[in-house]
Amino acid sequence: MAPGAGLAFLVAGGVSSIPAAIAVFALYLGYALVGSSTVGLPFQAWA
C-alpha cells in the first residue's frame, strides 16, 4: 500500500463506523474542555 493511502485509511478510521465516530467525538470534546479550562482559568485569575 502506498504511504499516502495508508495515512488516509489511518485518518479515516475514526469515522468508519458509528461507535468509532462517537468515541473520536467524545475524545475531541474532552480535549476541548481541558484545553479551554487550562487557558481560561489562569487568564481569569490574571485579568
Question: Could you write a compact summary of the structure shown?
Answer:
The chain crosses the membrane at residues 7-31. The chain is 83% helix and 0% strand.
Gyration radius, rounded: 17 Å
Tell me about the biggest sheet? none
What is the count of DSSP helices, taking H or I runs of 4+ residues?
A: 2
Average residue pLDDT:
86
Tally of domains: 1
Portion in beta strands: under 5%
Keywords: Membrane, Transmembrane, Transmembrane helix
Transmembrane segments: 7-31
Please provide a written account of the structure:
This protein is mainly alpha-helical. It has helices at about 5-10, 20-45. The protein has one domain (about 5-45). Helices cover about 85% and strands about 0% of the residues. The radius of gyration is 17 Å and the shape is elongated. The mean pLDDT is about 85.
Secondary-structure blueprint of this entry?
Blueprint: H1 3-12, H2 18-46
Jot down its keywords.
47 residues; transmembrane; transmembrane helix; 2 helices; elongated; mainly alpha
